[in-house]
Design goal:
Order of helices and strands: HHHH
Structural class: mainly alpha
Number of strands: 0
Distance between the termini: 65 Å
């Protein structure tokens, strides 16, 4: 263990090769250069699923019409009628 700490004290973390690129990253970079349509499809998919316009009026109505949760859904009290104490 002392060798490890000696190595660390000598600045081992600053001697790392920052130019290293993994095989997978190299493969993906090369693949995306050859297939630019994949990036275009990714952007279309992003817009389709994430870039949604929100109807503020409908959002406020949904928040107003919501029912408060009764504990966790797996308790029997959440399924049955409310009991007055």
């Amino acid at each position: 263990m002392s060798r490890f700490f000696d190595w660390l004290r000598q600045g081992a973390t600053t001697k790392l090769d920052r130019r290293y690129v993994s095989e997978f990253t190299h493969f993906m970079d090369h693949f995306l250069e050859e297939h630019p349509e994949v990036i275009k499809d990714q952007r279309i998919g992003w817009r389709l699923y994430w870039d949604k316009r929100v109807d503020q009026t409908a959002q406020e109505k949904a928040e107003h019409d919501s029912v408060p949760a009764d504990g966790y859904g797996f308790y029997a009290s959440a399924w049955g009628p409310k009991k007055d104490h």
